[in-house]
Amino acid sequence: MKVFRIHLTSWTASFRFPNLISGFQPTLPVPPLSTIYGLISAALGDYYALPKPEIGFVFQSAGKTVDLEIIYQMGNSLKNIKSNVIRREFLFDNHLWIYTLNFKVANAFKQPYFQLLLGRSGDLATVKDVAEIEVEPRGELSKLKGTIVPFKNYVLAAAINALPVYFTNTIPRCNIGTKPYYLLDGNYRQTQHILANGFLDFSNKFFERENGIEVYWQE
After folding, report:
1. Which of 58, 171, 189, 219 is deepest in the core (most CB within 10 A)?
2. pLDDT at residue 22 is higher than 80
3. How far is residue 94's CA from residue 140's CA, in Å, rounded to a whole number?
């Protein structure tokens, strides 16, 4: 089976926890689906939404730390603006692999229409490689990491959070289809198999010591 693999890298990344607006700003360990679709939309230069997305992804970072950031809080008028300092988590030395069966999506990353971001406006990402690769299809997955899996369909020993699937193409943007997902970070060790559609990417050199990486087809 052949799929397209898009490899992105960034110095920093941050994926905001839903519903946390003020105070300490933690980051999710992996991006939600809305971030993946946002990257695809940016590369295409057009809003991307498909009923059957045919998308899989794996995210890895070297670590996580906290930075101090100045924010500006605005009241009902421009006179009521004040600065504040908050603590914000971010991930560093990041790698994101997006897998797709869609040639148009893969080809768009060879010359992205808009800038690619892994979170905030300062989290600029670079396209390292776009390639068509051979993978091994699997209906049972036991080595997942660096991704998300829907809570309602499977049982895994992992943290759970409600994440947006899409955002509307309007101003202001509204999230669509928020669902609970298991968050499988880059160091996750799966303790039980799940019956799910996916594949083994045995050519990903980042995971050579593990004989490749399993990828879950997002539903």
Report:
1. 58
2. no
3. 27
**pLDDT one-digit tens code per residue, 124-156:** 999 999 999 999 999 999 999 999 999 998 999
Which CATH architecture describes the domain 2-62+90-216?
A: 2-Layer Sandwich (3.30)
In the structure encoding, which two tokens stand for residue 64, read together? Answer: 């996580």
Kindly report the pTM of this predicted structure.
0.92
Q: Which residue has the tokens 């499977």?
A: 154
- For residue 148, the cross-strand partners are 183
In one-letter notation, the amino acid at residue 124 is: L
Q: Write the burial class of residue 116 (CB in 10 Å: 0-12 exposed, 13-18 middle, 19+ buried).
A: buried
Token representation of residue 170: 């309007």
**Roughly how many angstroms between the first and final C-alpha of the chain, as a whole number?**
19
Beta bridge partners of 64: 91
The first and second tokens of residue 205, run together, are 């050199």
Maximum C-alpha span of the chain: 61
Question: Per the structure block, which two tokens stand in for 17?
Answer: 């926890």
Rounded Cα–Cα distance for residues 215 and 6 (Å): 13
Strand pairing report for 81-100 and 2-13:
antiparallel
- % of the chain with per-residue pLDDT over 90: 72
pLDDT at residue 156, rounded to an integer: 96
